[in-house]
Structure formats: structure tokens, C-alpha cells
Amino acid sequence: MRDLSGVFKAYDIRGVVGEQIDTDLVRAIGAAFARLVGGPAVVIGYDMRDSSPGLADAFGDGVTSTGVDVVNIGLASTDMLYFASGSLQLPGAMFTASHNPAKYNGIKLCRAGAAPVGQDSGLTEIQADVEAGAEHAAAGTKGSVEHKDLLAEYAAYLRKLVDLSDIRRLKVVVDAGNGMGGHTVPSVFADLPIDVTPLYFELDGSFPNHEANPLDPKNIVDLQAKVREVGADAGLAFDGDADRCFVVDENGDPVSPSAITALVAVRELAKDPGGTVIHNLITSDAVPEIVAEHGGKPVRTRVGHSFIKQEMARTGAIFGGEHSAHYYFRDFWKADTGMLAALHVLAALGEQPGTLSALTREYNRYAASGEINSTVTDQAGRLAAIRAEFGDRDGVELDELDGLTVRLPEGGWFNLRASNTEPLLRLNVEAADDTSVAAIRDEVLAIVRA
């Protein structure tokens, strides 16, 4: 029996092409996925990596071998695949490794209506099916393949959800990182009162300019410089599969995803008073505070898109946001779309005369460390050491919804959680000011890295 635990992750399938992932494997995964979800068809999209078209075709071969049809939408961002899954009411497969280096590729799967497929909602069954390698009876008739271009429909749908027709004209720099934003942004922003200065719109899965991971500060340096150079009102950076969007203001300063979550939440609550807003446990405390102040119901959840989407389905939430710049919308089949979040930010900016830095200031209430990774050989042991150190202190509150969250009596909190895929512990700290953040960070890291 083949062991695929190295490529089946918590939320997707991912690995090095030619070593961990090849056409034979994805063909088997396609057949297993089709058996899991049934007919009538599966929609498939893929990113700009050199390996993506061939892997997508092999997956489609697996699907059609079971008698299920394929709708191939070609080059797509991940949220465009979710649009296809939602609008066509079909399960879907997106071939991408997001911001990972060029040698990687992977598959994000969803059921009809963009419902998530993670370890607890189908991936485990698919893995077991493929690992067993059992012979399955051939379908009486092989499924067909239809090629369908949905880019224009995707762009039109997003523009219906956010009205930018009456905003003042804005100058915006967009860094697509040679990823799928270079494919989708021109269509989405067409005919809007926005003058786009493009950076790295050429589709190139080798990422010749920088990694397509805007959460790493080194990857937004060019965007920040260009915003200042051209006097832009804002800058946007997309990751490789363009489902995440990171924002910088007119000074080139990063706007935290927590502030964007709060801003978009306020706009969504204005349309749907009293609605529920999901936030993961390492977004800023400002998010639930602002949601409650605007009459909404904040709900805290674990990190990860499958957990967010499950909570959105359970609660009927109108919106959800994560510290990683994933933003989820009820009106987008509860799926994440950085593009829709970007349109909300530009609408909010363009509806008033002030700057983006002034607009977002009210959503930034605390200082934060950002995510700090530590390589450790014993994740559980280091977490236990932190629990032992802080658990006996008076007034300290602990919770273990996701890793370990510690709230300190003097104010501030930190979360320490293990990576699902690497020997890392991830630390996030928030407090009233930078000095307090640094003190908490240094105390925790001294124990974690001891």
C-alpha cells in the first residue's frame, strides 16, 4: 500500500512535482474524487505553473474514467474555481501550490457550491482510496470534457457584489507576483474608475521577480516602492493563485489583514444588520470588538479555510476573515476571495475623500508581532513547557481551541500552534504597544527555542 501522508495535507494535496506528485497519482486522485462526489460533472481549473495543465488533464482523465463529465475552465485563480463550482453547482478541483516555489504543485478540492473538502470532509477517504489501489469496475461510458471560459462571468459577478460606479477615481498599484492575479485583475477592474499600475502581471510559474507570498515583507518591497513612486492611493498584492490579497496604504505601509477584516465586516454589517462574522483566533482583538460595536455577532474559530467555511455554514455568517489575508463571503458561496475584499477596500476608500491610512486607523487598535516561526524537534514538548510556565500564574487564561492561546492579566495575549506540514511552532503576539509585544515575544521565544 502506498503511503501518501506526505502529500495529503489538512486542507489540500501538495508536493514536489515528479517526486511526490505526478500524472499517475493525480489520475488516481481524480477517479477517487469522482467516486466520492458522484456525477454529473467536476469542474477543473489550474494556475500558471508549467506542470499545471498536464496534471489537470490527468486528473480529468481519472474523473472521466468513472463516467463523470469534466468542465475545464482553463487558467483560473482559486476563487474563480470557487465561482465556477458555485455558479455551476458542481464539485471542483483547482491545480495550484499557491505561493510555494515552482517545483511544487497541488490540488484544492471542493464539493458543489464551493463547499470545502479537508481531512474531515473527504480528503481522508480519497487518500485511503488511492493508497489502497483497488481495482474498480470500469464505467460503461467514459465521461466527456467540455472547455468553458468563465473569466468574464466571474468578473461581472464580483462587480455586482460591490458597487464602485460612483467612487472618486483612484490610482492603484497591483503586484500580481507573476501569478493568477495577472489573469483576473484586468477583467475585474475593467471599466471601473481605477487607474491600475501593474507589477509582474506576466504569468510565470517560476516566479522570476519574488515569491508570490505577500505576507512575507520582502515580497512587497517592490509594491511599496511603486506606490510611493507614482503617488498611488493604495497598493494590492496577490499570492500565486490570487485567492489572498494584501493591502498597503498610500505611504506604502502595510495594512494588517485584521484591519481589512474589520473594515469589510463593517460594510457587510451595514447591508445585513446583526449578522454573524467569523474570525480566526489570531486576528486582532479589534475584530470582535468592532463587529460587536456595529451590532454584529463575532464568532471565533480555528485557523484554516475548512474550519472557517464550516463555521460560516453552521452559523449562517455573512463574512469571515483570517490573519493570513483570506476573506470569506456568504454571497460568494461562503468561499474565500481576495479580489472581492480588494473591491470592498477600494469602494470604502473611494466613497470618501480621505487617505487609506486615515480610513484604516480606526481599525488598528493594538500592536502585533506578526507570525514568528521557530523550528523545533519536539512541538508537543515545547507547547507543554509554555503551558507549564504560564499556566500557574495568577489571572492567566489558557485555551486550546487551536494550539495554545494565553491571555495575560496585564493585557495582551499570544498564540502558539504547531504547523500542520513542517516542524515549526508559529507564534503570534498582540498587546497594547510595541514594547509590550516585544516583552511577551522574547519571553515566549526563550522557552520555545531553549
UniProtKB/TrEMBL annotation:
InterPro entries: A-D-PHexomutase_a/b/a-I, A-D-PHexomutase_a/b/a-I/II/III, A-D-PHexomutase_a/b/a-II, A-D-PHexomutase_a/b/a-III, A-D-PHexomutase_C, A-D-PHexomutase_C_sf, Alpha-D-phosphohexomutase_SF
Alpha-D-phosphohexomutase alpha/beta/alpha domain sequence ranges: 7-134, 153-252, 260-366
Gene responsible for this protein: manB
Protein's UniProt name: Phosphomannomutase/phosphoglucomutase
Keywords: Isomerase, Magnesium, Metal-binding, Phosphoprotein
Every Alpha-D-phosphohexomutase C-terminal domain range: 371-445
Organism name: Actinokineospora globicatena
GO molecular function list: intramolecular phosphotransferase activity; metal ion binding
Classification via PANTHER family: PHOSPHOMANNOMUTASE
Family of this protein: Belongs to the phosphohexose mutase family.
Cofactor(s) of this protein: Mg(2+)
GO biological process entries: carbohydrate metabolic process
Biological classification of the source: Bacteria, Bacillati, Actinomycetota, Actinomycetes, Pseudonocardiales
